[in-house]
Structure formats: C-alpha cells, structure tokens
Amino acid sequence: MKRSTHHILTTHTGSLPRPSDLVGMVLGKEAKQAVDEEVLAMRVRSAVAEVVLKQAEIGITFLNDGEQGKPGYSTYMKDRLTGFEGESTAAAVPGEAKDFPEYTARRAGRASPIRPACTGPIAWKDRDAVRKDIENLRDAVKEVKAEEVFMTAASPGVVPHFMKDQYYGSEEKYLYALADALKEEYDAIHRAGFVLQLDCPDLCMSRHNRFSDLSTTEFKKIADLHVAALNHALRDIPADRVRLHMCWGNYEGPHHLDIPLREIIDVVLKAKVGALSFEGANPRHEHEWVVFKEIHLPDGVAIIPGVIDSTTHFIEHPELVAQRIVRYAEVVGRENVIAGTDCGFGTFVRAEPTIDPRIAWAKLKSLADGAAIASKRLWN
After folding, report:
1. Is residue 156 over pLDDT 60?
2. How many domains does the chain have?
3. Per residue in 67-85, pLDDT tens?
4. What is the DSSP string of 310-348?
5. Rounded to an integer, what distance in angstroms lies between the CA atom of residue 109 and that of residue 188?
6. Quick check: is 65 in a domain?
7. Exposed (0-12), middle (13-18) or buried (19+): which is 287, by Cβ within 10 Å?
8. Which of 77, 166, 167, 312 is deepest in the core (most CB within 10 A)?
9. What is the per-residue pLDDT for 40?
C-alpha cells in the first residue's frame, strides 16, 4: 500500500453516489421485480467507469468503484452466498433511540435494507459477481491516473449485524463459516492487485445497538472474536495490502452512547492490516485524535482519519480539512496519514440518498483541496 511520501494521499470509505437510473434498477431487483440482468450489468459497468473518472478529476488519489453494483455494503452477500433464505428479526432498539423516542419516531419511516437471516450452510453460489466487480474496476482505472486502487468487502463480523444466524447456533461458528466463505472474495481482490478494504463497523457500532446489554468488557470479548475471525480470513494476504474501516454507524443521530475510541482501539489494532480508517470529522468523534498521542501506532500501520463528515450537507472548508490532516500528521508522522471520509456516501441504495449527490462530490473536492494545502505545509 502506498504511503504519503511526498504529499498527502486522499481516499474515501467506499460507497459513492449512484446514478438515479441505476438506483431504480437495483431497488427493483431488491424488491423481486423483473429486471433485465444484462442491462443492469452494463449500467453497473458504465457507472463504475463514470465514478472512477469523477474521483480522478477532483483529485482523489486512492480510488475505487464506489460500490456501484451493490445494494448495500454488507447485505450484498445475500445474493452471492447460499444460506440466506430466511428473514431476520427486527434489529435491537439502540439505547440512544430509547433515550430520544421522539427523534426515533420521526426517523421511523425511512426504508431499511433487505435483511434475510442465515437459515442454512454458507457456500458460494455466485463467484461470477466478484469476477465482474474486479473486471469493471480494472478496466475503469486504465483510463485514469491513480496512485492506488482499493475494493471494499464486508467483514465476517458485520454480516451478523444485519443478517441474523438461525442455523449455526453460536456467534463463533457463524463468524468462522462466514470467514471461510468470504476468504475467497478477499483473495480474489488481492490477486487482482487491489488493496482490500474490510468494512468492520461491528467493532464499534454494534456496541450501542446489537450488544447494548453487555458491559464494555463483555463487548470487547465479542470484538476480539470478530477480529480473530477476520484474521483467519486474511491469513494469506500481506497486511500492507489490507485496510480496515471502523465506524459507529453512518447516520446523523445522537451517538451519545458510542463506545469511545480509546476503549476499543487496542482490540482493533490486533487486526492484521496495514491501515485503519475511522471517523474523525463529526462532532462526536473529532476530539479523539488525541488517542493517537496516548497509544503506540504499530510499525507499518497507517491511519485514514475521516476529515470530512458523511452525514450532513455542510461542505467543509478546505482550510479546516487541512488543519485536521496536519493535526494527525504531527502526531503519527506525515507518511502515516491518508486523508479520508468518516464513512460512505451510498452505504445502502435508497431512492432518496442521505446526502445530495452533488454535495457529496463537493465535499470530496474539498477533501482533495484541503489535502493539497496540508501537503504544502507538511513538505515545505
């Protein structure tokens, strides 16, 4: 994985705005409506080319396919693996929803992703989907200048958050069944020459909803198990070709029950990865840059702090972005910082995106402009 050796590299978390016609096709497929698969595949391919070009044009140097063909960053596995035929029970009500019921009621009408349950053995049924993802991105990046290319994948631990186990009977058995299956996707991405990003919000977000009834000590034991399963799936990929994204949930809300970074960072750093992506721009977590003053960042590990928020329509000023980048660089070293986003701009396909697409791209342009300012300060 390339480092910021002469300027600050820029990236994002993975999902990017999708064209409205593609959104309609993907939502139609999710609703079991008749969709011309050939037309859908062609539109995904052209959308990947468009989103790659857009990233390069605005100055994103560590780019990807924007997850254009996936209905959700974690739930896409239901279409590729066997065993997901049931229906998950309703998600646990997070503590913050109980504390602010009026706010929760106002959000209740939002559409939720399709959430089947695991009701049988997990195995591959559509390896071709991974091949197409790789082919689309590989062809798209031929047309642009990119310093590094990454592709995202669901971690073993995030799948149970959305798709409950009704077959394996224990968290550990379910996790390792997922890890063994997902390893094929991870290895294929690595063989293609892309950096693999594992999306692991389960290491933070699950604390205040799925496992809100546990103590912090008990939750950290669960998180340890998730990291162990992740490492099991990554055993044949060099750490410097993997980045991990952790977050507390990509939604605008109270977040007052989020587990503090300093309480979970020791578990996260057990993952065999070369870079750690995390929230660093929103009002709940921006202050946690000081955690990196308190810990030893392992040799060979870079950080990808979010320097723009992904849940509001504020377009961050490039000067603010630069200040955030420099702050981290002064703590861990400029070569160990890659500028990123708090989370994605298209986590799940929705008819009404959380962030207006034009504003999302404007925020990413501000990220690139701020990184250019920071680079001048850090290398001149």
Report:
1. yes
2. 1
3. 999 999 999 999 999 999 8
4. SSS-----HHHHHHHHHHHHHHH-GGGBEEEESS-S-SB
5. 38
6. yes
7. exposed
8. 77
9. 98
